Amino acid sequence: MTVKAQTPVITNPSLYDVEAIRKDFPILQTYVHGKPLVYLDNAATSQKPISVIRKAQEYYSTMNSNIHRGVHALSGVSTEAFETARIKIKKFINALGKNEIIFTRGATESINLVAQTFGRSNLNEGDEVIISEMEHHSNIVPWQLICNEKKAKLKVIPINDDGELILEEYEKLLSDRTKIVSVVYCSNSLGTVNPVRKIIKAAHKKGIPVLIDAAQAVNHLHIDVQELDCDFLVFSGHKIYGPTGIGVLYGKVNLLDSMPPYQGGGDMISKVTFEKTTYNELPHKFEAGTPNIAGAIGLGEAIDYVSRIGIGNISLHEKELLDYATEAVQSVPGLKIIGTASEKVSVLSFVLDDVHPHDIGTFLDFEGIAIRTGHHCTQPVMDRFKIPATSRASFAMYNTTEEIDVLVNGLNKIIKVFG
Ligand code: C6P
User: Fold this and answer.
1) Does 288 lie in the same domain as 154?
2) Interval 34-60: pLDDT, tens
3) β pairing state of 390-394 and 101-104
């Protein structure tokens, strides 16, 4: 079974055809509580195009076999498909080599890997790790764990009232004790796009490596790791229209080479005896055990899909949606946007006077609208703005201004019901 490309390549942004794109996503045709689904929870996970869904089916029906192990034909086919996915990712983020692309379960596991390998072998008592006040818990807790163990300190870049990093404070934090800077590219709860190039340059002046959490960036912005000059970059497949349970750690080859393995097991070894084990070359040194083969191949397919539409075209469309939504919600009495940075991706967090976000989420669900409510795994951000939670609408390549109108109508109904 061969799966054909569904959507033609868009070379001219004015030809962006959102209705054609929507047809590629079967779930968008579903009804929730009798209403057409309006899916605005894309920052939590995006929906999958039919080509990605079919690819998983194609893998299990025509290729299923373990990789890097068998001499039989199927194992050769699945190994080649798996390694082809790695090459697609390498090209997509412009890594220097495919050995710099490590498959993980997702952004969370990628950061834990770096904390437990690079962190464990480089941090000593009194050393420092710099993160920011807007990090997802996945870029806080792994560093806390290793800092506690090594008696190292976590230093935090503060944010201003618009939800932007205060760069002057960052520069003051950089010191001879800083062993790594680990910051988010785009905030999942505020939408802020951080000036990562400046952050990386300032750290590199002092010889400090930088990890970029691109979980909310890779689906919105063009990423070129060589141009960024980041040392590590992480993302999850499921936020870029790919499967869950698969993600990527990019690392510069010299750093990855210098790090000890993360987990022990099959595939990550070169030779095992009871006395001594030597490790496999990159990237396999960091990929112990049977990986999510279908997930990796599905992620490769998702990257093909995004590349056909063009990440630049997706960005433009999402910017239009964000501008439209930012303007439209002004008509909702008592609504306040949390996260008003000058540069944002398509994430709109807000609070409504006297209505708890969970009530907003539940009410909107009955209108067929899916948003996320809560702290979005960024409790320090909620503390910074002195709020318990926000409601968050997040837009993807297939959302429309009509869907934003449905959201705004729903919010106005809430105001009527809750007085
Ligand atoms: N944010 C959200 O609703 P995982 O769970 O490993 O795929 O991704 C973790 C992660 C790391 N960094 C950032 C910036 C993120 O936004 C996320 C996941 C989801 O905002 C789920 S909490």
Assistant:
1) yes
2) 999 999 999 999 999 999 999 999 999
3) unpaired
Tens of pLDDT along 262-285? 999 999 999 999 999 999 999 999
As beta bridge partners, residue 248 has 103, 235
- Predicted pLDDT at 354: 87
**What is the enclosing helix (H) or strand (E) of 93?**
none
Residues 105 and 67 in one domain: yes
- 12 pLDDT band, cuts 50/70/90, is confident
CATH code of 61's domain: 3.40.640.10
Q: Residue 327: which domain range?
A: 13-48+310-418
Q: What element of type H or E holds 116? A: none
Index of the ligand 1 atom closest to the CA of residue 106: 6
Distances in whole angstroms, Cα of residue 328 to Cα of each of 320, 373, 405, 411: 12, 20, 8, 11
Atom from ligand 1 closest to the CA of residue 239 = 7
Q: Are 348 and 325 in contact (CB under 8 A)?
A: yes
At residue 391 the predicted structure's pLDDT band, cuts being 50, 70 and 90, is: very high
Residues with CB under 6 A from ligand 1: 43-44, 106-108, 136, 138, 184, 188, 213, 215-216, 236, 372, 376-377
| Alpha helix ranges (H) inside 343-400 | 357-366, 379-384
Question: CA-CA distance, 358 to 90, in Å (whole number)?
Answer: 40
How do residues 60-96 score in pLDDT, each as one tens digit? 999 999 999 879 999 999 999 999 999 999 999 999 9
What sign for the dihedral angle of Cα 68, 297, 54, 215?
positive
My answer on whether 242 and 318 are in the same domain is no
What does pTM read for this prediction?
0.97
Average pLDDT, the chain: 96
Separation in Å, CA 183 to CA 90, 180, 198, 323: 21, 10, 12, 26
CB within 8 A of 326, min separation 6: which ones?
337, 348
Check if 377 is active-site: yes
Catalytic residue among 147, 186, 230, 377: 377
Q: In whole angstroms, give the CA distance from residue 208 to residue 231.
A: 9
370 by Cβ neighbours in 10 Å (0-12 / 13-18 / 19+) ranks as middle
For residue 188, the ligand 1 atom closest to its alpha carbon is: 16
Residue linked to tokens 């019901």: 417
